[in-house]
Specification:
37% strand; five-stranded mixed β-sheet; Immunoglobulin-like; mainly beta; disordered N terminus; globular
Length: 262
């Protein structure tokens, strides 16, 4: 590592040593156990909320030609540079064939009733190639977030919620694993690395399982919905937020499109 990255690493470790997890985290650096993931809940299971046979499918598009992304300089940590010999760029607007916009978080904002239990399975967030994988994800309050470090370099994972307690944890070794959770719904929660400033990702914390992230072609699907009228919101880190009102009946599938531009 260069002197610059060693200084950054030393600063992060010193901060964690003196202040624990930061933002009120526990001093041992272990997981936030104030809202543990339910071990007995089944995937998609609900406490009182209903599931149905309706679905909402669609596409998130970018209007016009995709804007030029900027090159990311990873020279401060030689390990990171070696993982991307051809270089890497920002991901403000990842536009695929046909104008599909990737990494939009789509979820039911209004219209549901009842409460839904957390899935028994964890959401996995990896640090690989000095990037967060995935870049955007959905999770329920109390659901386990399993954080991995697949890189042979120091990372520091720092969440910035306003409705839950922050966690701010160093992961200096490849193969490390930590477990965290969020206490309350919030769209969106930014997560960053204090050692590598280009690293960030976003978590959509919602109180039900009806959420999705648009894929390479911009497509998404919200299924197993009860019949009803819903406000559907699409969030994109650079494009902002858009909403649509959709009514679906039992067994019906309705298609919608969200269109963003710079």
């Amino acid at each position: 590592m260069t002197k610059r990255i060693w200084l950054a690493a030393a600063s992060v470790l010193a901060l964690l040593t003196t202040s624990g997890c930061g933002g009120g985290g526990d001093e041992s650096g272990s997981a936030d156990r104030s809202a543990p993931a339910s071990e007995s809940a089944t995937a998609g299971g609900g406490a009182s909320g209903e599931f149905g046979t309706a679905s909402i499918t669609g596409k998130v598009e970018y209007a016009g030609a995709a804007p030029q992304e900027s090159a990311i300089k990873m020279d401060a940590d030689p390990y990171c540079s070696l993982q991307h010999p051809s270089g890497v760029t920002t991901t403000n607007y990842v536009v695929g064939a046909g104008g599909g916009l990737k990494w939009a978080f789509v979820y039911v904002k209004e219209g549901l009733s009842g409460t839904y239990g957390q899935p028994a399975s964890a959401v996995v967030l990896d640090q690989k190639g000095c990037e967060y994988v995935p870049h955007v994800f959905g999770i329920m309050p109390g659901q386990e977030l399993k954080i991995l470090n697949s890189d042979e370099t120091l990372h520091n994972i720092h969440s910035l919620p306003t409705e839950s307690r922050q966690f701010n944890l160093a992961m200096p070794r490849a193969g490390m694993e930590l477990k965290q959770s969020f206490r309350a719904p919030e769209v969106m929660v930014r997560i960053k690395c204090d050692v590598h400033p280009w690293m960030e990702c976003f978590a959509g914390v919602v109180s039900h399982p009806f959420h999705a992230v648009s894929g390479d072609d911009g497509s998404f699907k919200l299924d197993r919905l009860p019949a009803g009228t819903y406000t559907i919101e699409a969030w994109h880190e650079a494009g902002g937020m858009q909403t649509q009102t959709v009514t679906v009946g039992d067994g019906e599938s309705t298609q919608i499109t969200f269109s963003f531009q710079a």
